[in-house]
Amino acid sequence: MDVTVHSLTNNPTQAWKEISKGQKLFKLNVKIPTKPVDADKVRFVCMSDTHSLIHNIKFDVPDGDVFIHAGDFTKCGQRTEVEEFNKWIGGLPHKHKIVIGGNHELSFDKKFITAFKEKDKGSDTEDDIPNYGKKSANIGDAVNTADITKFLSNCTYLQDESIEIFGIKLYGTPWQPAFGNWAFNLERGEECLAKWRLIPSNVDVLITHTPPLGHGDLACSGVRAGCVELLQTVQTRVKPKYHVFGHIHEGYGVTSDGKIIFINASTCNINYVPDNLPIVFDMPLPKGCTKV
Ligand SMILES: [Zn+2]
Ligand SMILES: [Zn+2]
Q1: Is the pLDDT of residue 135 over 50?
Q2: Which end of the chain is least crowded, N or C, by CB within 10 Å?
Q3: For the structural domain made of 12-284, what CATH number should be given?
Q4: To 5 degrees, how large is the angle CA 210–CA 216–CA 218?
Q5: Is residue 99 over pLDDT 60?
């Protein structure tokens, strides 16, 4: 089914009131497994929104086959932050490490950087520039978008891209419905949907920075921040087994609509304390695939 823009796309809270009438919603309690993963399964370990606070983490990151970070690993995409994160992720034991960007990775978004440079030339006021960026998002300290993979040498960075691991298909994308003046912002509706149309239909594990509508997207203000068209794309076309995201720190946790498992893996809570545990799941290896 072709997904089109929902009439309430700009009012996700109201949209969910309508859409949820025809939806199942389960909250799942997921604990970190104490036993090693079975030979015929792939263990995924998910984190998100660590915001350069990895050294404040008090838990051990569980071992597994694939580590996923769903974006916002920095405060403002500074070179030193990216270097520090790359060093940290390099020390993790997982064989595969998949990372996407989030709205805080300012220097990863070409459009944001161009607009920033323009603004910098033209005015003394920096009112529209994110708080973290006011003094520090200085272009000289940013990562050049062409060099992202050089800086993230200890992991695989996905930006509107797929990867196949042990026969399992993953896709990662950093975009979200406009949220203040940050990176990877798009207008709700057609602009967002155009990015979701790039997601292949055969993805098993989808990684976005934004939550879809209705799952892990309830902000403490009572407003839903998720994307309506992302939910519809995920439920009616892509139908992944897992959808991993972050962004709304207070939405941390695991839910399901009865078919797809939705994981908000935000490590930082609403107060930017990195206390939420990684979320771990085991997925059976596809037929004929091995981990060797
Ligand atoms: Zn965040
Ligand atoms: Zn975010």
Answers
A1: no
A2: C
A3: 3.60.21.10
A4: 95
A5: yes
